[in-house]
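Regression test case RT-17, inverse folding.

Input:
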């Protein structure tokens, strides 16, 4: 069926706003605009360095028209080209990430500043909207209803890819019919690689539509320093989770009888878990990359946690906070081997999904691993399977698995003197972080990314992803430009074929970006026993009076060279009956707590005028 080539009426406007949303809608996005783009910016082209020199030739063959293009950096000044009106489209691709609406706002304002008669189109519900021709015209009224707000509900998103020859051809038909000068793909690593393929196809077939990307993912695994220091949405998601983790840390201190085990987003990378750990100082934070590097078994992890819990119990602390990423289990070597063999064996029709049957056919190592697992996990491995007959790893509640193995280990230690109690409470924070109201950093970073994307398009660039850096400086001093997506790609084997991909950024144990892990490693022994919880509190948006409202992610600050001295409590807890009193000096509290402590409390006039000593 031929794609549509005329716009659809827009019917997705929000019907109601909270008081805070109204305040954020009124905030002027132009306050976030870097000075270098104030007059449009002058594009300076420079040579791009390939992420993998050994893959450069293979990538050149895949992208004969767009590989080898220069990167672009903007300098202050006006562009030296005619400012004819432009038509630009935008599409949201993949899962939601806070700040996406401000990327769109930056593009919108950028092309309108270029020429007030420029037109912007929004493709609905992801890449499918591009090749199906499902789009709307974005007006001032529509745009102004979504500035500084979370979610992707302005246009909707989708996980489709433009993959087949028909889909590429239909996408070009739609773009040609509209007369699009440019298309911005807002997405993660796969979406931006797909955008680069689309840019190559358009250029090879004489289509005038240029394609630019914007880096999105809350997982923090789309990071290619120095050009892409962080993906948008990561900061808001982590601060959302940190607020919740801080709350359960206060609960742990208040009740002094629960261990809170918190599973956080992050299947392939543990970036979120590490960032939240730095923001909140839990007693333990497990990182999948470290588990893999040290080849830790489930038993190793269990003993490590049990040792901490027993040591804390000797200090009268039968409570605590433990963080772990949702993908932890996939980093445990013997678990991967076990799952793979179970999948293979149960694919054979003669083998029944029972413990007795599977133990008879598993290798000795995998059979031992299987026996070590709690009964409910063994049952899940055998019965909870996807349509292809494979174990649904993502559904395994790792926090409950660890609680069960730790509980068993602690019970075994009672004979040798363990007298404590272990009462776990479980939390899984995931979708809560995807659509939150963006932080000041994400709001400003996204607006700068969008405005940068518009500047790249009006300068005739294609195949680039928007780059905003120098992020330790105030946003007015940020540096903007674009880097070729092909220069960020490596070749990996996917489903039997060589594919260009942007390598996922994992937590680094050593190397150029290991500062966050090394910082955490330096303080974690103190965190295990001492209660050094930092309570971030709710996000703040007062850029004038609250300096911490503008903070960028802690992991990013460390990667860019900033450092801190962590205060260790000197005063010992005091026993008060069955309760431990743990005084916390002001210098040990989070920056937001300090700011709130220094605020003058406001009282109604009738009460403030009341003399209680009269």
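Golden output:
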């Amino acid at each position: 069926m031929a794609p549509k080539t005329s716009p659809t009426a827009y019917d997705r406007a929000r019907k109601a706003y909270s008081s805070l949303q109204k305040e954020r809608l009124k905030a002027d996005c132009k306050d976030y605009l870097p000075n270098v783009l104030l007059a449009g910016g002058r594009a300076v082209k420079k040579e791009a360095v390939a992420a993998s020199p050994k893959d450069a030739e293979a990538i050149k063959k895949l992208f004969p028209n767009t590989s080898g293009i220069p990167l672009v950096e903007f300098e202050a000044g006006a562009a030296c080209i005619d400012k004819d009106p432009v038509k630009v489209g935008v599409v949201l691709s993949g899962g939601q990430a806070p700040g996406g609406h401000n990327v769109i706002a930056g593009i919108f304002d950028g092309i309108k500043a270029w020429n007030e008669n420029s037109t912007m189109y929004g493709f609905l519900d992801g890449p499918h909207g591009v090749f199906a021709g499902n789009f709307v015209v974005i007006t001032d009224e529509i745009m102004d209803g979504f500035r500084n707000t979370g979610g992707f509900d302005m246009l909707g998103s989708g996980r489709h890819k433009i993959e087949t020859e028909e889909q590429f051809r239909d996408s070009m038909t739609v773009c040609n019919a509209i007369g699009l000068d440019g298309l911005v793909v807002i997405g993660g690593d796969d979406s931006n690689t797909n955008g680069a393929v689309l840019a190559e196809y358009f250029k090879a077939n004489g289509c005038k539509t240029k394609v630019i990307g914007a880096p999105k993912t809350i997982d923090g695994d789309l990071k290619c320093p120095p050009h892409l220091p962080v993906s948008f949405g990561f900061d808001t998601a982590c601060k959302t989770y940190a607020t919740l983790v801080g709350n359960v840390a206060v609960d742990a201190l208040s009740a002094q009888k629960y261990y809170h085990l918190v599973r956080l987003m992050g299947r392939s990378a543990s970036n979120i878990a590490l960032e939240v750990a730095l923001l909140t100082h839990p007693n333990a934070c497990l990182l999948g990359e470290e588990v893999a590097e040290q080849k830790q078994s489930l038993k190793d992890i269990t003993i490590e946690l049990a040792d901490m819990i027993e040591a804390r119990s000797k200090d009268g602390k039968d409570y605590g906070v433990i963080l772990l990423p949702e993908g932890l289990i996939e980093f445990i070597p013997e678990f991967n081997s076990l799952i793979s063999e179970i999948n293979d064996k149960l694919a054979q029709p003669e083998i029944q999904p029972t413990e007795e049957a599977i133990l008879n056919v598993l290798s000795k190592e995998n059979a031992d691993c299987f026996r070590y697992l709690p009964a409910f996990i063994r049952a899940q491995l055998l019965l909870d399977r996807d349509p292809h007959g494979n174990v649904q790893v993502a559904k395994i509640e790792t926090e409950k698995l660890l609680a069960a193995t730790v509980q068993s280990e602690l019970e075994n230690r009672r004979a040798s003197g363990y007298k404590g109690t272990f009462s776990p409470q479980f939390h899984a924070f995931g979708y809560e972080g995807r659509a939150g109201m963006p932080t000041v950093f994400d709001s400003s970073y996204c607006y700068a990314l969008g405005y940068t994307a518009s500047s790249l398009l009006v300068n005739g660039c294609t195949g680039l992803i928007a780059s905003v850096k120098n992020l330790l400086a105030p946003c007015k001093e940020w540096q903007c430009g674009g880097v070729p997506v092909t220069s960020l790609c490596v070749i990996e084997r996917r489903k039997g074929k060589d594919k260009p991909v942007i390598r996922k950024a994992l937590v680094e144990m050593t190397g150029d970006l290991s500062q966050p892990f090394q910082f955490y490693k330096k303080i974690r022994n103190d965190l295990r026993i001492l209660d050094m919880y930092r309570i971030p509190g709710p996000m703040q948006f007062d850029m004038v009076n609250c300096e911490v409202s503008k903070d960028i992610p802690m992991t990013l600050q460390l990667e860019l060279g900033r450092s801190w001295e962590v205060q260790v409590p000197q005063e010992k807890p005091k026993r008060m009956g069955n309760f431990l009193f743990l005084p916390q000096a002001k210098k040990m509290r989070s920056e937001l707590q300090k700011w709130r402590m220094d605020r003058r409390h406001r009282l109604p006039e009738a009460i403030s005028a009341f003399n209680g000593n009269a």
